[in-house]
Specification:
Length: 614
């Protein structure tokens, strides 16, 4: 079996490491909270400070009237070999205090640093570790003394504020309560006992300490309390005789004070039979033994919490990314992996696994048809404009049979209007693809740790999209130009054949001279013929423009969005690759903290296993 000191000492070290890393919980219970500790609770002037100093065997706490303890003091005692004694503060980790008067002053100064030189309190703890051969391994938390009235310079809420602070510690199921009560007051009015009864009604976590036994009125004693008749606890009451004010003023050595306390109980007619269970030394051993017992009982739940936290830390490290190698090959591999991760997300947006790609279909199904419908063909093919165009096309020599040049000019002018919707479709899809690039970069978890690489990928992707847009614009304009360069002759032959058939059916002569070439009916017929042809081309454009846009922009974005980027990074030097993997400093700090916490929890698990069960 492991010794009591080794197990509790290990817990002390783990708690201190948790404190250094700021591992005090958050959601759920932290490892620090899962490890048992002792909270010292009592009213003002109940003798809390003297009890702590007796347990430590050193005079190191600030003294005075009113509220002296204005911040929680987390005091970790570490039993050492040899004769040297020293103290360390968490806020000054590289400084050792061998002079305990300096420790007292540092506590006062650190308290004032947060609360100011006022009588305000703060729930920000001071962490102090004392290393000495004269202590037992123990974690004690000295809390502000409970009070009933606010004094001058204190807010009216001070009474409630102190109680809430004390409750925040003693309500925790792993907290052992050291309830300090002065013997020269009625135990029924003890603030510490009252609070302990509320948060620990079964009394399993409460130890009662009776101070100032030597200050009781003559002819009275505290046997009813110490023997459990006045107020019974599951654990035995412990009596303490503090140093007198005269001893404090004379700086009487704590070891000498311990000896005087021992002599007091042994020579006392009232308490002599209890002497072996009284005094600060017995209290320290009693608490240490109980703490060891509680730790052993809680080991399974502590290990379960550690394992759960290790899994959570590993998952979080996987989410934000593990550290990368420093050689060029590892860096290039990491960059390519990040690019592939982005490319997967981008394709999911396009293919429907994520939202966004459907907006491209919206361009073809709504925006393009609406734009085509709004083209000003009615104005271009109005009777007046048809007359004007045909007359200009005929020049000085009017057309003989049909105004072919006029037809061609009217058709060319109409086809030119298709360029606007075609280019607008290209630009709309380009905008959507750029937005999907932005969303894909934001949604790629692996990339979040590399802001520089994010910018580089975004720039490369947008540059590629610009190339795709240029090619797409050329293609859709070429489609329009193709319609202009070769008209569908069969369409007009069919119209002419139908016209002759209608004339024959009506008994008119199809070869009548062209005297009516500028009549309203003739011009209206020309406009209708051109309009019918444009409608045919419009139906074709509605089909072919989306095909061209998808082929030149969407397909290429899926196939080769980062191809140029891959070629570029393959030629870059290690230093340039390293700059691309320049992480967000806050993320680097987070990973470092997570890694340290993970190492702490793994080490704690291994050490608790080895120390507790060997």
């Amino acid at each position: 079996m492991a010794t009591m000191e080794s197990l509790i000492g290990l817990v002390n070290r783990i708690q201190r490491a948790c404190t250094v890393l700021g591992d005090h919980g958050g959601e759920g219970m932290s490892l620090w909270e899962a490890l048992p500790s002792v909270a010292v609770v009592g009213g003002q002037s109940s003798g809390k400070s003297s009890v702590l100093e007796s347990v430590v065997g050193r005079d190191f706490l600030p003294r005075g009237s009113g509220i002296v303890t204005r911040r929680p003091l987390v005091l970790q005692l570490h039993k050492t070999e040899g004769q040297s004694e020293y103290a360390e503060f968490l806020h000054a980790p590289k400084k050792r205090f061998a002079d305990f008067a300096a420790v007292r002053q540092e506590i006062a100064d650190e308290t004032d640093r947060i609360t100011g030189k006022s009588k305000q309190i703060s729930n920000v703890p001071i962490h102090l570790s004392i290393y000495s051969p004269n202590v037992v391994n123990l974690t004690l938390i000295d809390l502000p003394g409970l009070t009933k009235v606010a004094v001058e310079g204190q807010p009216e809420s001070i009474v409630e504020d102190i109680e809430m602070m004390v409750r925040s510690y003693v309500e925790k199921p792993n907290c052992i309560i050291l309830a300090i009560s002065p013997a020269n007051q009625d135990i029924a009015t003890s603030d510490a006992i009252k609070l302990a009864r509320e948060v620990d009604p079964s009394g399993e976590r409460t130890f009662g300490v009776l101070t100032k036994l030597d200050l009781m009125d003559k002819g009275t004693n505290a046997l009813d309390v110490l023997e459990g008749r006045a107020y019974r606890l599951l654990h035995p009451w412990v009596g303490i005789v503090n140093r007198s004010q005269a001893d404090i003023n004379k700086n009487v050595n704590m070891m000498y004070a311990r000896q005087k306390e021992k002599e007091y109980f042994e020579s006392s007619p009232e308490y002599g039979h209890l002497a072996h269970k009284m005094g600060a030394e017995f209290l320290a051993k009693l608490l240490s033994q109980h703490l060891e017992k509680v730790i052993r009982q809680r080991i399974p739940s502590i290990i379960a919490l550690i394992n759960k936290t290790i899994d959570e830390l590993n998952a979080e490290l996987d989410r934000i990314g593990r550290p990368i190698g420093v050689d060029g090959g590892a860096q290039l591999y990491t960059i390519l992996e990040m690019c592939r991760a982005f490319d997967r997300v981008f394709k999911e947006h396009l293919d429907g696994g994520r939202p966004g790609g459907d907006r491209i279909y919206g361009v073809f199904d709504h925006q393009l048809p609406a734009a085509l419908k709004k083209l000003p063909f009615d104005r271009h093919l109005s009777q007046n404009n048809v007359r004007k165009v045909i007359s200009e096309a005929d020049g000085y020599q009017p057309h003989l049979i049909a105004p072919e040049q006029g037809y061609r000019r009217l058709i060319d002018g109409s086809l030119g209007y298709f360029k606007g919707p075609a280019e607008a479709s290209v630009d709309a899809v380009h905008f959507i693809l750029k937005e999907l690039v932005r969303k894909s970069i934001a949604a790629t978890e692996e990339l979040k740790r590399f802001p520089t690489l994010q910018s580089d990928i975004a720039a490369a992707a947008n540059e590629a999209l610009e190339r795709f847009r240029d090619e797409s614009r050329k293609t859709v304009l070429r489609l329009v130009e193709m319609e202009s360069s070769y008209l569908t002759v069969e369409f007009f032959r069919k119209i002419n054949a139908e016209s002759e058939k209608n004339q024959n059916a009506a008994g008119t002569n199809a070869s009548t001279p062209n005297a009516d070439r500028y009549t309203d009916n003739h011009l209206r017929r020309i406009g209708m013929n051109v309009s019918a042809y444009i409608n045919l081309v419009c139906d074709t454009m509605r089909i072919t423009i989306p095909k061209a846009v998808v082929h030149c922009q969407v397909r290429e974005a899926k196939r080769s969005l980062l191809n140029h980027f891959y070629a570029q990074i393959g030629r870059r030097e290690k230093e340039q690759l390293g700059k691309m993997l320049d992480e967000d400093p806050s993320l680097m700090a987070k990973r470092e903290t997570l890694a340290k916490r993970l190492e702490l929890y793994k080490s704690a698990r291994d050490e608790i296993d080895s120390v507790a069960w060997k």
